[in-house]
């Protein structure tokens, strides 16, 4: 795999605890981030707390609640074993084996595996597009300016291609820009424009990348096509929400009408071959 920043998100330097001599602000922020991510999926767990890098009484109580909720020893401290429990969704998303007889199937399985582990961004220090999931997709980058839909797409393709010993960068350059991938598709003659896709839906295949046009050579959102049904495509996409925003907060399975939107399609066929 080329995109391995997620590995840093799975580790802390030392046990973190209230008034701990080895406390590290970045590690505490990681812990607080995961406590909040856990609270999003388990709102009755009592693990939501501030993300400020200070292991105070509120963070200690949130840790105790996490440990109680998961049947762990209630110590109020976070060693690597407890942190492993906190970060289990990320590890599962990036490291669980996925089924597939070919690259397209592997891409779909990988995207679905990430989806079921609930990737979600956080707001830290008044900055959206932050947190461990965003950093994992964006090679350590985060913050309001770092839209992460393409980072998600490339992480999925990279992970799936690596199963077959392939390098996704032979298909497209490492980038966070929809425009860069769109232009690459034009140059390689593997970008199906929306007009052609509307006329011939057979040109759209599961595993391909959709790109929503702003103007002819300007795209602002992307994701993975998982199915084509009549006028509709099903997708898995990052940095979106229920309204289909290009700057939402989660990975979601969405349905889009490609005949009513200017959606171009980047083919992964050359990497499949």
UniProtKB/TrEMBL annotation:
The organism's lineage is: Bacteria, Pseudomonadati, Bacteroidota, Flavobacteriia, Flavobacteriales
Q: Which residues form the Peptidase C51 domain?
A: 146-239
Q: Which residues form the Peptidoglycan binding-like domain?
A: 26-86
- This protein is called CHAP domain-containing protein
Listed transmembrane segments: none
Q: Which SUPFAM superfamilies match?
A: PGBD-like
- Annotated organism of origin: Flavobacterium cupreum
